Amino acid sequence: MTQEITSSDSQSRLLAEAEALFAREFGDVTPDGAWWAPGRVNIVGEHTDYNGGYVLPIALPTGTVAVARRRDDDLVRLVSEGKRVEVRLGDISREASLGWASYAAGVGWAAARDGLDVPGLDIAFAADVPRGAGLSSSASLSCSTASAWNDLAGWGLERPATARLGRLAENEIAGAPTGTMDQMASVLCEAGSALRLETLTNDTEQVPFDLDSAGLVLLVVNSHAPHELVDGAYGERRRSCEEAADLLGIERGHLCSEVDGRDVSAVDARLEELPDVPRRRARHVITDSARVLAVHEALGAGVTRESAPAVGRVLSASHASMRDDFEITVPAVDTLAAALEDGGAYGARMTGGGFGGCVIALIDADRVDDAVELAKQRAAKGGFAEPEPFVALASEGAKRLK
């Protein structure tokens, strides 16, 4: 049977792990509280968030718990799975090469840059978002940290501002050139809903996404093909989008703003004027932003068996666009997407930044096991790692646990 995880189970287990780790690492000092932030699955709208486009993520039931205590000095002590990092607030920089801890310590750097009073912290983390799977394990780390620091320092930041600190930590200290979707999803998503986010304005709408009542599931299959955003390929895609914007006379970061609603025909002729690579990169982000609106329209008041085929077609079209125009899929995920469709899914696509990670599929609940079995057979035949499936439930965003 395919695994189904709930937020309450994940949070309870991770809280116990993080509290035990805090006690081992920091002695008898009592922590001030515990905070949770989830990973995310993006239903559609890939690489659109740094181009001013639309995205449609849900929060996962898996995430990161941060157990923290405010300090009276400027020292930040962070521990996760036995890995410990200590750094003074004034020493936090990209050049400090803090590794995994840069996603957390970078929040303090971002807050100080914004002129906030930043105290030191002791933090112990426990997490269960699969790493390297394109499910934003890094955003769950940075946003759990931002939520803890916000409360303990008394900054009083609203949720979008908390998410912004997490993004700045990833962009400026960890060196991951992500857009705003991952952190906004981790902080703003609600249980039973997808988050329609217009990244140019940060306007949001909670879209009903209760698949269970319709006999459907959003199946996530981890290809176990490596996924890494802090590398040249992701950055090259972003630079190609900026090049396309420059050639079209559009402000960088606003490439998707040329589309009015779902009608992309108005920019087709202009895209033909571009060289091959920037043309195809721009075509993907513009059409994928429009696909978010198409899914939103198909969902209406919620997901039904009647709307599932239309949503599925959009998912499959998104995968083809990522494969052919944006060139961020790999053979392992292409194989899984095709296998899941052949196994009965309404549609399937890679999710996340690309070059590995997970495939999602919208499918009837009673067809999941057969589709998964076919995907495993195809992966084995292709010489790929055995895929790992689970059912994604639209879950709650960041919060304080205790």
Automatic annotation (TrEMBL):
<feature type="domain" description="Galactokinase N-terminal">
    <location>
        <begin position="21"/>
        <end position="70"/>
    </location>
</feature>
<dbReference type="Pfam" id="PF00288">
    <property type="entry name" value="GHMP_kinases_N"/>
</dbReference>
<feature type="domain" description="GHMP kinase N-terminal">
    <location>
        <begin position="115"/>
        <end position="188"/>
    </location>
</feature>
<keyword id="KW-0119">Carbohydrate metabolism</keyword>
<keyword id="KW-0299">Galactose metabolism</keyword>
<keyword id="KW-0808">Transferase</keyword>
<dbReference type="InterPro" id="IPR006204">
    <property type="entry name" value="GHMP_kinase_N_dom"/>
</dbReference>
<dbReference type="GO" id="GO:0004335">
    <property type="term" value="F:galactokinase activity"/>
</dbReference>
<dbReference type="InterPro" id="IPR006203">
    <property type="entry name" value="GHMP_knse_ATP-bd_CS"/>
</dbReference>
<keyword id="KW-0067">ATP-binding</keyword>
<dbReference type="InterPro" id="IPR013750">
    <property type="entry name" value="GHMP_kinase_C_dom"/>
</dbReference>
<dbReference type="InterPro" id="IPR000705">
    <property type="entry name" value="Galactokinase"/>
</dbReference>
<feature type="domain" description="GHMP kinase C-terminal">
    <location>
        <begin position="306"/>
        <end position="372"/>
    </location>
</feature>
<dbReference type="InterPro" id="IPR019539">
    <property type="entry name" value="GalKase_N"/>
</dbReference>
<protein>
    <recommendedName>
        <fullName>Galactokinase</fullName>
        <ecNumber>2.7.1.6</ecNumber>
    </recommendedName>
</protein>
<dbReference type="Pfam" id="PF10509">
    <property type="entry name" value="GalKase_gal_bdg"/>
</dbReference>
<dbReference type="InterPro" id="IPR006206">
    <property type="entry name" value="Mevalonate/galactokinase"/>
</dbReference>
<keyword id="KW-0418">Kinase</keyword>
<dbReference type="InterPro" id="IPR036554">
    <property type="entry name" value="GHMP_kinase_C_sf"/>
</dbReference>
<keyword id="KW-0547">Nucleotide-binding</keyword>
<dbReference type="InterPro" id="IPR014721">
    <property type="entry name" value="Ribsml_uS5_D2-typ_fold_subgr"/>
</dbReference>
<dbReference type="InterPro" id="IPR020568">
    <property type="entry name" value="Ribosomal_Su5_D2-typ_SF"/>
</dbReference>
<dbReference type="Pfam" id="PF08544">
    <property type="entry name" value="GHMP_kinases_C"/>
</dbReference>
<comment type="similarity">
    <text>Belongs to the GHMP kinase family. GalK subfamily.</text>
</comment>
